[in-house]
């Protein structure tokens, strides 16, 4: 099986082109095996690139633990890069089908190569039962969540997948690896949840670390950064235009007041190509 490894701001995935036929494999098991950083290729998950009857391509995503997810903001930028550079479709913008509907990608080109991609992430979901979360409020803004006897103030947003945003004074490993892991599995989140810990530098600039549902800490999370942009505005901490510094690089976010869509811009980078043994 041929594959290509790519990353968006350090959020890395193994991608497989399924335009020549679907994989006849146990996909959750394949995702676990190929994502293993000691015995596999090493990645935050597996993304399959399929034909689509309603878009230029369809993205199917599995986390490193084998669970299937609805969307990945960093992964979809890499899908756009692959689809364009391989000549599958060279329209600009591209349309990519996801578990969160069809999204539009505006490509920033450097010659015939895709350097960066602006993704129309769509409208944020703020209704508690659609996120989903059992915390009160529509929207769920600055609500109290108690984890191991410690009460946190959280804001919840879905960008096609669920996010719990915690604004903190200082980002620490204890927060990410301890508290993040516990929030993901907390009973208030029936589908589990991605957790973003965020330091506000200024109204237009933040720093973020993410505990990602099914993968642990990742170096970037595009849907999470988009959710942080929304949460910052709703909680009165940031503006609608935001630069987000993640471990793997920067993402630019804009929550447009006119159409209520969040726009995320960032890099897409190829690492290497290889063959996974049958």
Main traits of this protein?
18-stranded mixed sheet; Diaminopimelate Epimerase, Chain A, domain 1; 18 strands; 278 residues; 2 domains; alpha+beta
Q: How does this structure look, described?
A:
With 278 residues, this protein is of the alpha+beta class. It is built from four helices and 18 strands. The longest helix is centred in the N-terminal third of the chain and has 13 residues, at 73-85. It is globular. The mean pLDDT is 97.
Helix/strand-derived class?
alpha+beta
- Overall geometry comes to globular
What value does the average pLDDT take?
97
- Strand content of the residues, in percent? 35-45%
- SSE string: EEHEEEHEEEEEEHEEEHEEEE
Number of helices: 4
Compute the separation of the termini in Å: 7 Å
Provide the CATH topology of the largest domain.
Diaminopimelate Epimerase, Chain A, domain 1
CATH architecture of the largest domain: Roll
CATH C-level of the largest domain: Alpha Beta
Main beta-sheet strand count, sense and barrel state: 18 strands, mixed
Question: Level of helix content?
Answer: 10-25%
Number of DSSP-assigned strands? 18
CATH superfamily of the largest domain: Diaminopimelate Epimerase, Chain A, domain 1
- Using only C-alpha atoms, the radius of gyration works out to 18 Å
The low-confidence parts are: none
How many domain regions? 2
């Amino acid at each position: 099986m041929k594959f290509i490894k790519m990353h968006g701001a350090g959020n890395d995935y193994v991608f497989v082109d399924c335009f020549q036929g679907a994989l006849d494999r146990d996909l959750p098991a394949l995702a676990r095996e190929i994502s293993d950083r000691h015995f596999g290729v090493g990645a935050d998950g597996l993304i399959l690139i399929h034909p689509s009857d309603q878009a230029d391509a369809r993205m199917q995503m599995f986390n490193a633990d084998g669970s299937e997810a609805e969307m990945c903001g960093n992964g979809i930028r890499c899908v756009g890069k692959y689809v364009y550079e391989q000549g599958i479709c060279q329209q600009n913008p591209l349309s990519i089908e996801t578990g969160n509907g069809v999204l539009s990608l505006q490509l920033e080109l450097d010659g015939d190569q895709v350097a960066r991609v602006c993704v129309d992430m769509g409208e944020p979901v703020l209704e508690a039962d659609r996120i989903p979360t059992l915390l009160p409020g529509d929207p769920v803004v600055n609500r109290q969540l108690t984890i191991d006897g410690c009460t946190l103030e959280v804001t919840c947003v879905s960008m096609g997948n669920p996010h719990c945003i915690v604004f903190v004074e200082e980002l620490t490993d204890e927060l990410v690896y301890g508290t993040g892991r516990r929030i993901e599995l907390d009973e208030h989140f029936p589908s589990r949840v991605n957790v973003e810990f965020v330091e506000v530098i200024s109204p237009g600039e933040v720093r973020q670390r993410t505990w990602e549902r099914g993968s642990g800490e990742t170096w970037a999370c595009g849907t999470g950064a988009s959710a942080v942009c929304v949460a910052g505005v709703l909680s009165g901490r940031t503006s609608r235009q935001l630069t987000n510094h993640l471990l793997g690089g920067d993402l630019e976010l804009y929550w447009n007041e006119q159409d209520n869509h969040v726009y995320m811009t960032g890099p897409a980078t190829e690492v290497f190509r290889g063959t996974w043994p049958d």
